Amino acid sequence: MAKRPASKTSAITTKKAKLAPLLPSVPSSTSTAAFRVIAGSYEHVLYGLDAMFDSAAGTGRDAHMEPVFIFPAHMAAMKTLAVGGRYLASGGADEIIKLYDLKLRKDLGTLHAHNGSITHLSFPTKQHLLSSDSTGTIVVWRTKDWENMATMKQKSSVQGGKKGITSFAAHPSGKIALSVGEDRRVTLWNLMTARRAAVNKLPLQPTKLGDPLSVAWSPSGDRYAVMFDRHLVVYTTATQTLVGGVQSVSKMHCFVWLDEERVVVGHEDAKIRVWNPIAPPGTEEVERYRGVEIDAWTGHRARVKCIERAPSLHINIFVTASSDGEIKLWRVGSKIMGEDNKGGEEEEETKEIGSFECGNRITCLTVADVGHVEKLTEEVEEEEVKTEVESDGEGEGDEA
After folding, report:
1. Which residues 6+ apart lie within 8 Å of 26 measured at CB?
2. pLDDT tens readout for residues 130-141
3. Nearest to 94 by CA among 76, 113, 82
4. Are 228 and 180 in contact (CB under 8 A)?
5. N or C: which end of the chain has fewer CB within 10 A?
6. Using CA atoms, how far apart are residues 150 and 163, in angstroms rounded to an integer?
7. Contact 160, 151 (CB under 8 A)
8. Over the stretch 216-233, which tens digit does the pLDDT of each residue have?
9. d(CA 39, CA 47)
């Protein structure tokens, strides 16, 4: 596969410019941010909210979100967001990728390589960004200089058929990825060679299920799940064996893995449900297995469009967003997490601990570890100072 030439993007040309912050500093409380919630909207607006725990102990019993930046980021509806280290990438229906520095709140520029709406973004490693679009193209970007390293093309199962990619997911190893889309198949990509490795058909007569909407690996990478309109199916990675699924009356809009055997799903009826999709051993006709509903969280007033797990080592927090612009924080109770619910074992039920009204229709969501971003930024700044000193020394020697 031939590599595309490097794209001359504004991200490269603006790095040396002194850019104004995206939003003047907003007065905040003395609380330290636990993580940052970043949301994109149909109205093109990008939100950055710092999640603050109100209790000194930081047990997550109550929290609130304070705005860090709010600004129009795209010329059309936003569709996807991704965080990698200090960088934030956003994509939308305007066919471009915008890049930002989370620590400095700077606009780093724009990446151009797609001829369709950007459907998904992901940082599989610190060195690379992956982007997909509605024409079936996946681009591999190098974060060092934002060069377009390779382009992978999805092929339709029939000549002239649809091939747009709706979602993809990089394996925890960072070496392979899965994509799903309008061709109603699962494609395995080798990220080491930037080539398609395998294509697998989906079960249950996909024409009745509609197009797959999302795909995600389990935390270990030993399984993956594919979500449809009202169905979710689970496969083993090693053998591609169907091991379970979920069938729901209410439409599904988003999901994340809770652990190796459970998923958390956002539904059309404004509820968030915890499901166990894994069929018991000996189950006949696994393709008909409907899954077991374990719990349901209520609080949203409109369909739940996005869900993410917060990067916290002490408590289990989930972030959700609904189409009416409301973002909520949830602390998962011991009823769900059991002994894994560090810092909150005394609370049995899952509880809403904070919310923020955006006022726009939220379409995408991600979370960032604020502490990790700050640490990485300090390392980068130290390296830049060291480089400048070495460069100055070499220049003086040449002049002498």
Report:
1. 66, 67, 68
2. 999 999 999 999
3. 76
4. no
5. C
6. 19
7. no
8. 999 999 999 999 999 999
9. 5
